[in-house]
Design a protein that fits this description.
Layout (H helix, E strand, L loop, with lengths): L1 H18 L5 H7 L5 H33 L3 H20 L10 H6 L7 H14 L2 H13 L3 H23 L1 H40 L2
Helix pairs in contact: 1-7, 1-8, 1-9, 2-9, 3-6, 3-7, 3-8, 4-7, 4-9, 7-8
Length: 213
C-alpha cells in the first residue's frame, strides 16, 4: 500500500508539472475575460472533465496503440523524453510551451464566435493542459504498470489532476492577483525544472531497456 501511495505522489507530481494548470491561468483569463463568474466556473468544469476523459482514454488504449504501430515501450519512452525535454526548456524560459498551444490558437479562440463548450475543449483542455506531453506520460506509465493496482493508481492520479485543474481555474482570478504575471512565470520555471529531470530519466530508462543495460 505504501508503495502505491508513493507511486501516486510521483505520478501526480509529474502530471502537475506537465499539465501546469497554474501556467494556464493567464490563457484561461484571456479567453474568458468577458464572461461572468458562473460562466467561468462552467468552463473550468468542462475543461477539467475533458482533461480527465482525454488522459484516461489514452492511458487505457495506449498498449493497443503500441501494438498497432509496432512500437515498443522503450522507444516510446525515448521519444516521450525528447518531447518533454523540449517542453521543459521552453517552460524554463517562463513561457507556455509551443508544444501545447500556439499564439494563433489563443487569439482565434479569444473571440465571441465560439461556444463555451468549444472554449473548454479547445484550446484550454486540448492542447493547453492535456497536450502531447501529458498524453505521452500517462500512456507510458500505464504500459509500465503490470498489475491492476498499479494501473488503478495511474487512473487515480489522472482524476486528481482533473480536480486540481478545476480548482485552479475556478480560482484563476485570485491566483493571478496574488502571484501576478511574474509569480506565474516563476512557477512555470519551477515546473520546467522538475519536468527536465523527468524527461532525462525517461530517456535513460528507455535507452537502458532498449539496449538491455
Amino acid at each position: 500500500m505504501l508503495w502505491y501511495l508513493k507511486y501516486f505522489v510521483l505520478l501526480y507530481g509529474g502530471l502537475f508539472a506537465i499539465t501546469n494548470p497554474i501556467g494556464a491561468v493567464p490563457v484561461f483569463l484571456g479567453v474568458t475575460h468577458d464572461l461572468g463568474r458562473e460562466e467561468r466556473r462552467e468552463i473550468a468544469r468542462k475543461t477539467a472533465l475533458t482533461v480527465v476523459v482525454t488522459l484516461v482514454l489514452f492511458a487505457l488504449v495506449g498498449e493497443w496503440i503500441f501494438e498497432f504501430f509496432g512500437s515498443s515501450v522503450n522507444a516510446f519512452a525515448i521519444a516521450g523524453g525528447v518531447l518533454l525535454f523540449k517542453m521543459a526548456m521552453e517552460m524554463l524560459s517562463g513561457s507556455i510551451s509551443t508544444v501545447k498551444i500556439s499564439r494563433e490558437e489563443t487569439e482565434e479562440f479569444g473571440g465571441e464566435a465560439v461556444t463555451l463548450e468549444e472554449v473548454a475543449i479547445i484550446p484550454l483542455a486540448i492542447p493547453l493542459i492535456s497536450g502531447p506531453g501529458a498524453i505521452t506520460t500517462v500512456m507510458l506509465y500505464m504500459a509500465r504498470s503490470t498489475d491492476i493496482p498499479g494501473k488503478a493508481t495511474v487512473i487515480a492520479s489522472i482524476l486528481a489532476i482533473g480536480v486540481t485543474v478545476w480548482l485552479v481555474l475556478c480560482s484563476s482570478g485570485r491566483i493571478q492577483r496574488r502571484l501576478g504575471r511574474v509569480g506565474i512565470k516563476a512557477m512555470t520555471r519551477m515546473m520546467g525544472l522538475i519536468l527536465t529531470s523527468m524527461a532525462v530519466q525517461m530517456m535513460i530508462n528507455g535507452i537502458k531497456g532498449a539496449f538491455g543495460l
